[in-house]
Amino acid sequence: MNRREFLTFAPTVALAGQLETHKPDGARLRTALCAYSFREALKAGKMTYGDLVRYAVDHKLDGLDLTVYWFPEPLTQKWLLDLKRLAYRNAIEIYSIAIRTEMTRPTPEERQKEVQEIRRWVDVAATLGAGHIRVFGGRVPKGATEEQAANWAAEVLTRAADYAAEKGVILGLENHGGVTERAETIVRIVKQVNSPWVGINLDTGNFREDVYWQIQMCLPYAVNAQLKTELRDKQGRRMESDWDRIFSMFARAGYRGYLALEYEGEEPAETAVPRWLARLRELAAKYSG
Asked: In 3D, which of 73, 85, 30 has the Cα closest to residue 255?
């Protein structure tokens, strides 16, 4: 499908069983922060996940998207419930967790391990009260075609979604390079899975060409969004992301959900994140219906 065909077709695009039949009258944009924005502090133990809850309160956010990479090991029920209680008592929603997955593994045994790993994190999300998990598709294995890799990812997602549905958790497949490098492929995977519990975790900074057009293509399937402050082209050159344009795209699509800052810029997070969160709050208020 070329761009002209897509722009003609896009307003009527609907994923069977995936989108509500009633088109929202207006966008409902909620503000959030990805834990990954403070990855260095979390990694070094200078910040805790509890600190993130308090940080979200200080910056008047609605929710947190918790990258799980620095959760304690072993991960205990008590730790999860204490964090859940802290968030509740501060009126901050832990609405999402973000995990690593590699669903394009070529053997059935390896794909079964991926399914089991996702199921493990579904249980964690359910304990925290998070309704969403960010997952990765994975790389295209050497010797495999993109079509094969996409089919393997769809197989894993389908099986994992059956379990996620039992726990009330949505799986958001991120556009994160590899098999999900292009919007056409990630949309095809989600449509192939054809589950109301699977959508796209739309990262606005991960496409490397035709960025805004590819974001537009993914919007009908977006179940969560992570906002980057920069875009990069195929040569790795940085440019500032046009947030006003992006927010207006989400608003026109009738998006109702979270937009979480995932800061990866060169300026230290301690000084940059507050400034970007202020901009996030401003635009969310401007474009919410």
From this structure: 30
